[in-house]
Amino acid sequence: MSTTRIKASDRTKVCQQIVTELKKKYGSRVPKSDRTVLDSLLFAICLEGAPHNDAEAALVNFQESFFDYNEARVSSITELQKAFVELSEPEWRAMRVRESLQIIFEGRYSYDIEDFRKKNLDAAEKYLNNIKSLTPFVIDYTMMSTLGSHIVPVNDSILKCSIVLGLLPAETDMASAGDQLKAAVRKADSPLFFHLINELANDPEYTTLTAELDPPEQEDQMAVLKHSVSRLKELLTGKLKPSPKLAKKSASSSKADASAAKAPKKKTTKKSTKTSTKKKTASRSSKKTAKKSTKKK
User: Fold this and answer.
1) pLDDT tens string 16-47
2) Most exposed: 2, 7, 39, 171, by fewest CB within 10 Å?
């Protein structure tokens, strides 16, 4: 394995090139919004693992489904999750929304938390961490969108996509992924970079493929990083395919599953045949015994 150390500047250059390519598909601007702090928090809950437009639609659906946030706060999870059925894990989203509304209301008997914008980063993060069900992604997005914090929110889909492209090493975990991307993307560029990589990571056109793709070979991580842009182009044009080994493995596992599914049926048939034969033999024996005893009498 190459011992060449990757500098933040190396990754910065590649990130800029990736942004240039993604702009062609997803646009060159972050969608504008004038959300309150609370609405930004609720939007972040909708956005995790979803494209921007789907999250926007889910938030609007939620807001239109209830008279106000107070009604939503006292509603059941079953009632709340109906607003998020178009997204994955609607029950978890409903739980996070309700807990957020509950904790905010209990703290100030209102849903106005605009003073959040005046907090420093540590105080803001501490406040959001009081809502135990919130994920790091939701907290980071809320801080980025309301405080302008230099953060690149990361979740499972963004991490997987970044590794598949070769933008991050295969062994990268969630915490270090955010740190590495933050170091590579300028503060002014982080909202756009996040928006574009999130759109790609959650685009239904590519999610199945990225889930099947193996990370690139890690022998020379600098070469892998430099190849990220060409891998992105191949992904967008449909030229990037799962490795033949993976395809063979899934094909053989499918055959094994099919054989396993057939095997029990054959055994069951044999067993039932043997059982029925035994029952017939026992029945005949009992009849013969009965006849003998009748003759003796």
Assistant:
1) 999 999 999 999 999 988 999 999 999 999 99
2) 171
Amino acid in the structure at residue 260:
A
CA 137/CA 153 separation, integer angstroms: 5
Taking the whole predicted model, whether its pTM rises above 0.85 is answered as no
Q: Which amino acid is at 178?
A: G
Q: Is 120 left (phi over 0), alpha (psi -120 to 50) or beta?
A: beta
Task: For the chain, list the strands marked E by DSSP.
Answer: none
| Cα–Cα nearest to 175, from 152, 202, 141 | 152
Pull the structure tokens for residue 268. 């069951």
Is the dihedral angle over the CA atoms 54, 58, 64, 65 positive or is it negative?
positive
H helices present in 130-243, as ranges? 136-147, 156-165, 174-184, 190-201, 207-212, 221-226, 228-237
pLDDT in tens, 282-291: 445 554 444 4
DSSP sequence for 206-229? THHHHHHPPPPP-SSHHHHHHTHH
Give the Cα separation of 159 and 135 in Å (integer): 15
Which of 170, 167, 169 is CA-nearest to residue 227? 167
Count of helices and strands (H, E) across the chain:
15, 0
Distances (CA, A) of 258 to 212, 246, 262, 265, 288: 21, 18, 6, 12, 46
